[in-house]
TrEMBL record:
SMART domains: FH2. Residues 332-358 have a biased composition (Basic and acidic residues). Residues 363-376 have a biased composition (Polar residues). The keyword Electron transport does not apply. It comes from Oncorhynchus kisutch. This is Formin homology 2 domain containing 1. Residues 568-953 form the FH2 domain. GO terms for biological process: cortical actin cytoskeleton organization.
Length: 974
């Protein structure tokens, strides 16, 4: 009877429908068909394997890979990666309906992520009326589908709002704000805004819009944001200060501009603005943050604004009440009056260093009516003095309020246009020292009592010292080099211009701005400023070297050098035609400019050199093309071409010979030695070339033949090349053997110490003993290859899956094994049998190198080279002996390790290292993959449970305790 009940419960009959929602902006579709057909679901098989049957039955016009199953009517989505049985706790309503004999309805529809992606794509790519319709529909979409809000927030939907809204006009911005207001009504949506400070920055930016409707909506949303939890006020301050740093706008200036009626008078705007300020201040936990905000407001004339509105007869009582709340908050914080309604009952915390020394930047000694009746001039003067002393006090600022918000009104803002021309070393908004600076023109403030004095600019040594990067000294780079010499027209403007035609004395060419050096000594008459050589006095104005009108092309004024290039010098008269040098002649005359390297150009400072023209004429005489000379070609074309091609990547043949004789590694690299080894001449080739050369002594050899003949002249060529190649390759060959051996040694240690691997073996042993009804002490590790193949008969999950589940549930400190045994994974890629052969080959090459050294020694006269090679081979021999010992001991330790793992002694010798490491590596990789899947499923379940707590919940339903102490978190954000 129990078996029949289990079989009946394994099949759950549901009614199924589909909803055509591939276009998320179409809200008029209903589930089809109206009479949903029944469909049997196996509660032990993953829904992803059964959804295709539902899709086929309904003939749904949806893409199968984009489908999801949603329960009706509560709207919960089923996890397709799990079976119904595995998510039974999350779908209790479905099982309750089945228990009462009902057939629950499942709706096949588009996945949330796909719909959100379609929404974002539509918003990014639409324009004009289509974009307006889409934005207008968003609010209704979020109202109708409460699951759409968290998915939209998690898919960078808020970023999309900002990008679209920044480029749109105020009408589109208003539609976006309507949709955002609906998002912020949900707990999940509000949490998304809290986590996305860019949205708060954008809302604050919109408070400076020219559209009153946009400003009102933005202010209302900011008020809702601040009211939601006390932790949001610092986030708003952070957004305001971040925006101030990036744009150069003074913090809170958008709000003060509203109160100053710069865009017209609107009482509702005034009330909303003051309400936002008061609620922000009321939620701040410390005095530093409070005074940072209020000081900034006072600097921008808050006292004058209050006086104007409070003294006006047309000001509404609600607005006066907001100003009163603000003033009482200031007085309460200064300790001058007790807490009143709408004001914090307790004063905020102060730092120990302040001893309650910080107060509001304007005097609070008077009562409220006196302050409101005081003149703006007097209050501003007091504010100036207070702000100066406050800005210099070592107060601890809030982490959410950059120090730039405390700038004194007596100082110029670091974001003013005038500061844009300063060099980066002068001021920096990110420097701690500039947080309370008195001026952007001075990096530090003078610690005087008045606070209005400005310090002098930084001395040059400090600037020079700043030009150091670690041990690299760039101190010689001076300020004048900030200006590119190419930006100053010294070539075309100040060089070679006529001297004014005999008028007044023309001014000398202007120096480069910022140049520290003085110009050259003034010449007696004009006309000489463009000459670079200090020779005899220049000619009178208008004559000499000045060009006649019309002037020559720019950059090429006539000079002695240019005229000499046009008329041949008698000293260069030639009887024969010579080879031409095809260089680019400098046409530009020398200028008197001075740089780090000297005055003028390098050519002006060169000494005159006298050359032997007769010899040059003989050597470089231009002759008619001669017929190609005959060459001795002995090698066949294939061999000759191969050598000629090889010579293109090698140095000259005489360099090769010297390098081989001296073992010069800088002249020829390892690849070059290997290439020369393939080109070494045989005795037969050497004999043929020599015979041909003797037969035709007047005919030169071909390039390939000459190359081989030169190589053959080197004594012990093959022995030298082979010894050299071994010398260059030894380190690599040794590394290819030693590193795998060390990996194997380290891998055995890692596996033996791995607690998770031992717990896996213990769990598998316990499960196997129960299934086999035995009490085995262990099993051969070869069985680890089959663990993934054994599956249960209910959920068809592998034995490894259940083992992993057990370990995750019972041992929270376990790991994925794979990441902890990297040496085993590397050892699995090495063929250790070939490693043994490589060790034998290395020993053989070393012995051959000793023989080659003996051959070379017969002809080698350089004792230093011979001794160096001998020492090298001795060292190699010792290292190879050590390598053989290491290899033998590592293999023996591996055999011992297998016995430790329970391997029978008769099979240990037959077990290959690579095969064993591959078994362990592949099993650990499978375990890691399975473990990640198990952890993902558990995380999804936990996320679903957390999501259920806030799913569809409005912020008005959140308890007061949650608002004051924190916020409900949805598990989807990470």
């Amino acid at each position: 009877k129990q078996g029949g009940t289990r079989k009946a419960m394994a099949i759950i009959t549901c009614r199924v429908q589909y909803l055509e929602d591939s276009d998320p902006f179409v809200c008029t579709n209903f589930p089809e068909p109206r009479r949903p057909p029944p469909y049997d679901l196996d509660e032990n098989i993953a829904l992803i394997e059964q959804i295709a049957g539902v899709h086929k039955l309904l003939e749904a016009p949806l893409k199968l890979e984009e489908c999801a199953l949603q329960m009706a009517p509560n709207g919960n989505y089923l996890d397709l990666d799990l079976s119904l049985g595995e998510q039974k706790d999350d779908v209790e309503q479905l099982y309750d309906d089945v228990g009462r004999g009902k057939k629950p309805i499942l709706i096949l529809r588009t996945q949330l992520s796909v719909r959100v992606h379609s929404i974002l794509e539509k918003l990014y790519n639409s324009h004009g009326p289509e974009l307006r319709r889409s934005l207008f529909s968003l609010k209704q979409l979020f109202e109708d589908d409460k699951d759409l809000v968290p998915e939209f927030v998690n898919s960078e939907g808020l970023t999309c709002f900002i990008k679209v809204g920044t480029e749109a006009d105020h009408n589109y911005q208003n539609y976006i704000l309507r949709a955002l207001s609906q998002i912020m009504l949900f707990v999940d949506g509000m949490n998304g805004v809290i986590d996305h400070n860019d949205t708060v920055q954008w809302l604050y930016t919109l408070s400076g819009s020219l559209s009153r409707l946009v400003v009102k909506t933005a202010l209302k949303l900011l008020i809702v944001f601040v009211e939601y939890t006390e932790l949001n006020s610092p986030l708003l301050i952070q957004a305001v200060n971040t925006l101030s740093v990036s744009t150069g706008v003074k913090p809170w200036s958008y709000l003060t501009e509203i109160l100053e009626e710069k865009n017209g008078s609107d009482t509702e705007l005034f009330i909303l603005t003051m309400n936002l300020i008061n609620k922000t201040l009321a939620a701040l936990p410390d005095q530093d943050s409070f005074y940072d905000v209020t000081d900034c407001l006072e600097q921008q004339g808050m006292e004058h604004i209050m006086h104007k509105h409070m003294s006006s007869k047309v000001t509404e009582p609600d607005l006066k009440q907001q100003f009163t709340i603000y003033e009482r908050a200031l007085r309460h914080e200064d300790g001058e009056m007790d807490a009143a309604p709408h004001v914090r009952k307790e004063r905020r915390k102060v730092t120990a260093s302040e001893q309650e020394g910080r107060r509001i930047r304007r005097s609070s000694a008077q009562n409220l009516p006196d302050i409101l009746s005081s003149s703006p001039t007097t209050s501003n003067t007091i504010s100036l003095s207070a702000s100066s002393s406050t800005s210099l006090s070592p107060s601890t600022s809030s982490p959410f309020s950059p120090s730039s918000s405390t700038l004194s009104p007596s100082t110029s803002s670091p974001f003013s246009p005038s500061s844009s021309t300063l060099s980066p070393s002068t001021s920096s908004p990110f420097s701690p020292s500039s947080s309370r600076s008195a001026s952007p023109l001075t990096p530090t403030s003078s610690p005087s009592d008045s606070g209005s004095q400005r310090s002098s600019p930084l001395p040059p040594p400090e600037v020079a010292n700043a030009l150091k990067i670690k041990d690299l000294d760039f101190s010689d780079l001076m300020e004048e080099e900030d200006i590119d010499v190419l930006d100053v027209d010294v070539f075309d403007v100040g060089v070679g211009r006529p001297g004014g035609g005999g008028g007044g004395i023309p001014p000398p060419p202007p120096p480069i701005p910022g140049l520290a050096s003085a110009p050259p000594p003034p010449p007696p008459p004009p006309g000489a400023p463009f000459m670079s050589i200090p020779p005899p006095p220049p000619p009178p104005p208008g004559g000499g070297l000045c060009s006649p009108p019309p002037p020559p092309p720019p950059g090429a004024p006539p000079s002695s050098s240019s005229s000499s290039s046009q008329t041949p010098d008698p000293a260069f008269a030639k009887k024969r035609k010579t080879v031409k040098l095809f260089w680019k002649e400098l046409k530009q005359s020398d200028s008197p400019r001075k740089c780090k390297f000297g005055r003028g150009t390098v050519w002006a400072s060169l000494d005159k050199v006298t050359v032997d023209t007769a010899k040059l004429e003989h050597l470089f005489e231009s002759k008619a093309k001669e017929l190609p000379k005959a060459e001795i070609l002995v090698l066949d074309s294939k061999r000759s071409n191969s050598i000629n091609i090889g010579m293109t990547v090698l140095p000259a043949v005489h360099v090769i010979k010297t390098a081989i004789l001296n073992f010069d590694e800088f002249a020829i690299n390892k690849e070059g030695i290997e290439k020369i080894l393939t080109m070494t001449p045989s005795e037969e080739e050497k004999q043929k070339i020599q015979e041909a050369q003797l037969a035709n002594p007047d005919i030169p050899l071909g390039s390939a033949e000459q190359f081989l003949l030169t190589l053959s002249s080197i004594s012990g060529l093959s022995a030298r090349l082979q010894l050299w190649a071994f010398k260059l390759n030894y380190e690599t060959l040794e590394k290819e053997i030693a590193e795998p051996l060390f990996d194997l040694k380290l891998g055995m240690e890692q596996l033996a110490k791995n607690k998770t691997f031992k717990r896996i073996l213990a769990t598998l042993l316990a499960i196997g003993n129960f299934l086999n009804s035995t009490s085995a002490k262990g099993f051969e590790l070869n069985y680890l290859e089959k663990v993934t193949e054994v599956k249960d008969t209910v959920h068809r999950q592998s034995l490894l899956h259940h083992t992993c589940n057990f370990l995750v549930d019972n041992y929270t400190d376990t790991s994925d094994v794979y990441s902890e045994i990297p040496s085993i994974t590397r050892s699995a890629r090495v063929e250790f049998e070939q490693l043994s052969d490589s060790l034998v080959q290395l020993e053989r090459k070393c012995k051959t190198s000793w023989d080659n050294l003996k051959v070379m020694s017969k002809h080698e006269t350089k004792a230093l080279l011979k001794n160096r090679l001998t020492e090298f081979l001795k060292d190699c021999t010792e290292r190879i002996i050590i390598l053989k010992v290491v290899h033998r001991r590592i293999i023996n330790r591996f055999h011992s390790f297998l016995l430790y793992l329970g391997q029978p002694s008769y099979s240990v010798r037959d077990t290959k290292v690579t095969h064993f490491c591959k078994i362990i590596s592949e099993f650990s990789l499978e375990y890691r993959t399975t473990r990640e899947r198990v952890l993902t499923q558990k995380h999804k379940r936990a996320t679903h449970r957390e999501r259920t707590k806030t799913r569809g919940k409005m912020i008005t339903e959140v308890g007061l305790g949650c608002r004051s102490g924190g916020r409900p978190r949805s598990g989807v954000r990470g």
